[in-house]
Amino acid sequence: MQDWKVNGVSHSGTFNDPQGLADLLNQLDPAGNWQLDEATFTIAGGESNSAYGPMEVLHLATGALSILDANSNTTPGRAGLDLQVGEHWLMATRKADGLTDSLHIMVACVYADYFEETVKLGQVDTICLDTSELMGEVVSLENVCQSATPGAELELLPQTLSGESWCLQCSATSTGTTSACYVLCDEYGICDTTYIELKVIAVPIAESDLNTGANDSLTTDDDELIIFNAFSPNGDGVNDVFRIIGLERYPNHSLSIFNRWGNRIFRSENYRNDWKGTWNGTDLPDGSYFYLLDLGNGQVKSGVVVIRR
Hints:
mainly beta; Immunoglobulin-like; five-stranded mixed β-sheet; 2 helices; elongated
């Protein structure tokens, strides 16, 4: 061996046969673990973080010079990266020749939203789809599982009417149950699904109880407890708090609100319609939150409330 570079350092030595060459390689590059395959007379090995150059072999008896190029194929070990939600660029450089390559990575944690609401015949409300978990601009919306049963009609509202880009008008036109699965996808192919199930019941709602504001949504029950499932705490004096009408009938009630990871962010044992979407005095981000309302009489109500500023 006249010359062989490992990580830029030249090596040389003598050998008499293929096994002798393998032994010499292990002497010069102990981390390489070079092994001879006697069936094919192939020597394989090498350390993944090392750069190997071609080998110059001189036959001492004849003076013949041969250059053996190393096969650059390697078997990679395992590596892991902990990436936060957001946009990342991964850059890789091959040490042997400085060749670089890059990978654009978008990390999103997307959780499906669930709306199970009971509305009253003739009621018209708005449901806004949560887009906060998507990375890019929304490019498509599809209802992939709309039921054919009677109940509520769902229609996408234009931005000029709803105040939001992706809001649905819910019209309770007949009694029954309607289900839908709306899938929003952004420009990067990330999709978020909202499952909706609306039960329409034939109980009129008093107009005096529906002073809700332009983009409010609500849940009603046969006992006339009305739980609004959207509010906009932007300080304009309209729909700034999470409202529940009828709690005075349940003096032992308690209300807890959780984020989508199950962390409790609000609790009240005598809720007075005063939660403005904050935690420890800080505004929470727009999105879907989950409420658990214990009426204190063995009944528990649960559902989703959406913050939209």
